Amino acid sequence: MAADDGAMAVAVNPNDAAVLFGSNVGTSKGIEIWGIENLKPTPWPKDRYGEFCTGEAYMVLNTIEPGKQYDLFFWLGDAVGVGERGACAYFVVDLDQHLKDVPIQYRECQGSESGKFAALWKHSGGFHVVSGGAASAFTHVEAGEGLGGKARLLRCKGRRAVRLDEVKLESASLNDGDVFVLQQHDVIYIWEGKESNRWEKQKAGDSAEKLNNANGGKARLVRLSESPDEAAGFWAALGGEGPVAPASEGGDDALFERNAAASVRLFNYEDSGKWTQITGLSAPPPRSALDSNQIVLVDSGSENTGIYVWVGKDVPKQKVVAQ
């Protein structure tokens, strides 16, 4: 059951999914994730749930009520290859058919994720994107080893829907309006811009703990606002202390979230029992898009404001009950 243009018309054998995804797929409430490795779906490590690589394609199944209600997402990184992109779309259809066409499908592209997708990671350290592709995404890391000793810098930005993105490992990446997490093998620093907000600070702390736990919990967590005397190690990892860009260079948080809200989508409830996206609308959609003869689902694009169902005053009662 496609809620947007995420599905592809591919003829597949629904029995394949039991082999590819396991016979228990979709039988318990919760989230399951697969990446595409060697053009086949491969389970994503649970301790990395919420982390996505720019060169990868992922399938995310959220089982809300086994056998009755599923959300099936496929996420595409900016640098994902054509092969992985096609394989991911193919296996989404395979899994959808295995679950008897019950899942609602969503296509998510890096930088334009829906609020519904972002909300999945609210209680697991948040959603964040890191560089890398198939070769690095599935690199096995023993607890305590870290990511091959490679340091990385993550930016936390937003208010109601804070997200993390990996940025270049240098002081020039910093700005006074956001919070940054620097991950190293033995220490994780949290650096707070002078004008950063409390949501960014909180998300940075949650994410730092998650990163540490995923690597054995052996790193020290240092919030530089509380331990300024340890700043030398932070600046050394960035190639030396340099001027910090003003908050304006990082972009306005409100505008950042308005851009996310611009992805508001409307779906009409059809007599066939399926939701069909209303296309050709301006962003955000105008009130005139709500037809008094229709039932319309409104995806707000925000994890906090959520999804609404609008029922037109002229909709027959039997259609409302069926919905």
Structure, explained:
With 323 residues, the chain is α+β, with helices and mostly antiparallel strands. It is 22% helix and 28% strand. It contains eight helices and 16 strands. It has helices spanning 16-21, 82-98, 115-119, 134-137, 198-214, 231-237, 253-261, 317-322; strands at 30-37, 40-43, 51-55, 57-65, 69-76, 104-109, 128-133, 152-157, 163-167, 179-183, 187-192, 220-223, 265-269, 275-277, 295-299, 307-311. A hairpin with a 5-residue loop joins β8 and β9 (163-167).
Helix content: 10-25%
Overall residue-averaged pLDDT value? 79
Structural class of the secondary structure composition? Answer: alpha+beta
Task: Going across the biggest sheet, name each strand in turn.
Answer: 3-7-9-8-10-11-12
CATH class of the largest domain: Alpha Beta
Count of DSSP helices?
A: 8
The CATH superfamily title of the largest domain? Severin
Secondary-structure map with pairings?
Layout: H1 16-21, E1 30-37, E2 40-43, E3 51-55, E4 57-65, E5 69-76, H2 82-98, E6 104-109, H3 115-119, E7 128-133, H4 134-137, E8 152-157, E9 163-167, E10 179-183, E11 187-192, H5 198-214, E12 220-223, H6 231-237, H7 253-261, E13 265-269, E14 275-277, E15 295-299, E16 307-311, H8 317-322
Parallel strand pairs: 3-7, 5-6, 7-9, 11-12
Antiparallel strand pairs: 1-2, 1-4, 4-5, 8-9, 8-10, 10-11, 13-14, 13-15, 15-16
